[in-house]
Design goal:
The complex is a heterodimer of chains A (587) and B (177). Chain A is of the alpha/beta class. In chain A, 36% of the residues lie in helices and 16% in strands. Chain A folds into three domains: 195 residues, 3-Layer(aba) Sandwich (Rossmann fold); 158 residues, Rossmann fold (3-Layer(aba) Sandwich), CATH 3.40.50.1220; 179 residues, Rossmann fold (3-Layer(aba) Sandwich). In chain A, helix 8 links the parallel strand 6 and strand 7. Chain A starts with a helix and ends in a 26-residue tail after the last strand. Chain B has two domains: 86 residues, Alpha-Beta Plaits; 71 residues, Alpha-Beta Plaits (2-Layer Sandwich), CATH 3.30.70.1150. In chain B, strand 4 and strand 5 form a beta hairpin. Chains A and B meet through loops of A and strand 1, strand 2, helix 1 and helix 2 of B.
Chain lengths: 587, 177
Amino acid sequence: MEKAKKSQIEKYQAGPKKGPASKVQAGQKVSGARALMESIKLHGGEVVFGLPGGVMLPAYDVLYDDGGISHILVGHEQGGCHMADGFARATGKVGVCFATSGPGATNLVTGLCTAHMDSVPVVAVTGQVRTTVLGKDAFQEADITGITMPVTKHNYLVSDPASIPRIIAEAFYIARTGRPGPVLVDIPMDVALAQIEYHPVTEVKMRSYNPEVAPRLDNLDDAARLIAEAKRGVIYVGQGAIISGAWREVRELARKTQFPTTTTLLAKGTMDETDPLSLGMLGMHGTAYANFAIRDCDLLIAVGARFDDRVTGKVDAWAPGAKIIHIDIDPAEIGKIYIPDVALNGDCRQVLQALLPLIAERGPTEWNEQIERWKQEFPLWYPKGEDRVYPQAVCEELWNVTKGEAIVTTGVGQHQMWAAQFYRCKHPRTFITSGGLGTMGFGLPAAIGCAVGVPDRPVWCVDGDGSFIMTSEELMPAVQHRIPVKVAIINNFCLGMVRQWQSLFWDERLSAIDLSYQPDFVKLAEAYGAVGIRVTRPEEIRPAIEKASEINDRPVVVDFHVVRDENVLPMIPAGQTIEQMMVEKPR
Amino acid sequence: MPVTRGGLQQNVGTQHTITVLVENKPGVLTRVAGLFARRGYNIESLAVSITEDPTVSRMTVVASGDAQALDQINKQLAKLIDVIHVADYTDLPMVERELALIKVNADTSVRGEVMQLVDIFRAKIIDISDRTFTIEVTGGVEKINAFEKMLEPYGIREMVRTGRIALVRGARTAAQT
């Protein structure tokens, strides 16, 4: 085992007295639970985020002294699932979480749905009541495979203990291949206790699931022709580019064509956002220049993106003059929202590698000058020089201090959009956020997962006060395992995005948004054994971020008291067009 | 509905017969039915059975919608892990059959008439009581609809239909379409 991996496991080991990694020989008699743990290790599981309970005890007994795998005891199973999710997004590996039957399992649902919507490889293992009482409303029984069917890529209820090695092999394979997603494996207690002959399964063969097919490239020439003919091309990059590891190819495509390139929220970092060709994020709260470019482009190259409604607004008025080339691994995404002029169905990286040699190098054109003029006229902007803490200033200062090299996670709401706008990512897998489901409370647990997976990068969670309240209990495992995540709470003492919508679209009737009875976050952090810092004045922003950056043995919560009634701009109201975009020019 | 350049595509909804070959495992029917419900597609009929291969089940789904909606549902079905193959039979020459059992009022005064209808439709009387016949009829949807209509005046007490099943004409099989 390489050094870093070993030290990381030692660092985060959960059990009191871990021995060496257990070694089970093929053919050896073991319990279903040991077969489970051996299989998880075999397929790359290094760390489990979980919370035990009655029917999960067979697996937790194996965890007790097996030094080959570590465990982080979470405060709430939802947090465990988000940690596995953050771990997976930051590393590209499969994240693993455990929960017991009944309420433990149902607490995973939000986390699984979050991972499902954002195509994140997570394997969740749940305990289930004994097969003898299954279906009889036993204590802590819940039909978790039934419940999670629509929010997982696939799930299993294991009835044959001998099938555990195969099912775990399939679970990891399904989770990480094709369009990734979460897989849940539900194991009844008697199945986990049964003795089986362990035979490791390293190769998965499923007649009904064959994701590793070569891309369909029969119309590659059509794509190259459209690119050669385009005068105002735009590259629109989604998270598929990150999943397939295609960021080098995306950057090469941008360089060769000189097409301005915009990313979705989840694809931030595919392009270096400090690159002049980068348009930043597009969509509802995207940059004005990205949305202008979409409005006026004559060719749109969609790479691993799915035309989400937060990107397009009114579908039939979006990119009205554009021909579309759609590259995606999922055939169901092609033609779901738009029927493309050229469809390239396959892994983004493989498709781009085939396409790039067919594209001639071009120099900048009038189109690039137009983009530059828009950037000058409509930059992302907020008032400066005032004696108040602007939320945008916090995100910008965070970028300055970390030089854009940190991993940033977020909750959901205004702070998420400001972080997306002002934290200009340089690397893929460094902006981790719940885009599809929009799960408040995702930020802190996801940050913990990122820090476990990538211990050598600083991890900041830019959170809202509302989002932080939802999963702040996860400070406990962060303190226990000395995980130095930093939480920057953009605290406006209200549910800011809801307030913004009520202000703009509901006639200022501010309903159920007040969070002035929130706890004192500095004291809360200290109560957990973390460090708490409060910032109420603009000149304190940078020193607070610097101070937090120096702390490396525990989590830090920085409570930024920000301007309360600031709106996220630009904004294209839901379902509308760029003509309705609200944008402020610098004053 | 997906958009082509230049506005929304208008398509008249037509009936589609989709054959889905799936792993013969518990819960697969729920996965397929759940997908239709979740994505807002209506199932008009659904027939499930074993096949020549005991590890494979066959579902015949009749659903209606425009071409794009059905293309989408076929792709989403194919993504289900337990689905082995999806074949849309709509534009293919096929034989389709449905079976209905109909319990109709038939006291002595009308028995002769009803038996004549049974003959004309090549149906079968499979149970009889002093007041009713139970009739078995197979055929295409339209034939069964017509037969039902002819029996209505006598009073249909109860009816059950299997839903459509279909095979492609000729030597070709579902797995090859």
